[in-house]
Amino acid sequence: MAHPPYTHGLHELGDGLHAWLQPDGGWGWSNAGLVTGDGASLLVDTLFDLRLTREMLDAMGPLTAPAPIETLVNTHANGDHCYGNELVVGAEIVASDASAREMGEITPQVLHSLLQLDLGEELGAYLQGAFGPFRFEGISVAAPTRTFTGSLDLSVGGRVVELIEVGPAHTAGDVLVHVPDAATVFTGDILFVGGTPIVWAGPVSNWIRACDTVLALGANTVVPGHGPVTDKRGVREVRGYLDWVLAESRLRHRAGLSAEEAARDIDPGPYRRWGEWERLAVNVDAAYRELDPAYVGADVITQFSRMAALARR
User: Is the pTM of this model over 0.90?
Assistant: First the structure.
């Protein structure tokens, strides 16, 4: 089956699988997935706020009425993949141990308060552009009710769904959701297709290994956390970007440049065409943490300030 068009809404993938896509895939505009079996369904991720999640669940209604969502898997702890959890009433919520621990660190209330702060014109405008479209008020994030490490096989209406922990990479506990009988994998934010990955946790080399794990699954259909549905080609592109970041960072680290100086010095070349290319600032910082165990990375506000500065450039 050909990959669906990259348009907003619910798209059939075949074999009882669907993807919920949100162009343009930038900050907060994440994807989700639905796996249906005999009388039961599994939902892969919720969205950044309750309004968006409700729209998605309503669209899935004709599919989930005869096969209710019994299991919700959060691929990682970022809010655009879990802030809508409370709307999936009665489902078992599954995540890696590391993701469950990380979920309470940046709450919807923190993001709401952040948007109210006077952080200067450049940073304030950047944060409003990234998070301003979403409504963080009144969200009570439902925590995972089941956690695991390594791997976990689930039964969804008689079909096997494999959960594979590949973090820390993008976040502390990233998880792949593999449906072997449909040759499909939902990667969460291990893949950004057409947009720039952001290495909040790292190490970068572990994310590269995560891409290798996706490739080894041999899936024909790959649903990224952000961007259009892809295949192995999309995985290889992300892997190539991460390998490039690590190599370019290593050169500048050896030359004595700071992480901030290195991010300004690196020419993104063809990667400038990717959305949010300025995430290079965060990715170089992550590479420096990997290259030098004594290096203390920048705090989140500093990271966003550096991205805002690169975006302006």
Answer: yes
For residue 62, the number of C-alpha atoms closer than 13 Å in the C-beta half-sphere is: 4
Strands (E) across the chain are located at: 9-14, 17-21, 32-36, 41-44, 69-73, 92-96, 146-148, 151-156, 159-165, 175-179, 184-192, 221-226
CB-based contacts of 241: which residues, under 8 Å, 6+ apart? 196, 197, 271, 274
Indicate the residue type of 185: V
Max Cα distance, the chain (Å): 61
CA distance 185 to 270: 27
| Look-up of token digits 């309004």 | 51
Q: DSSP strand E in 149-229: where? A: 151-156, 159-165, 175-179, 184-192, 221-226
Instruction: Compute the Cα dihedral for 242, 32, 228, 276 and give only its sign.
Output: negative
pLDDT in tens, 88-117: 999 999 999 999 999 989 999 999 999 999
State the amino acid at position 6 in one-letter form. Answer: Y
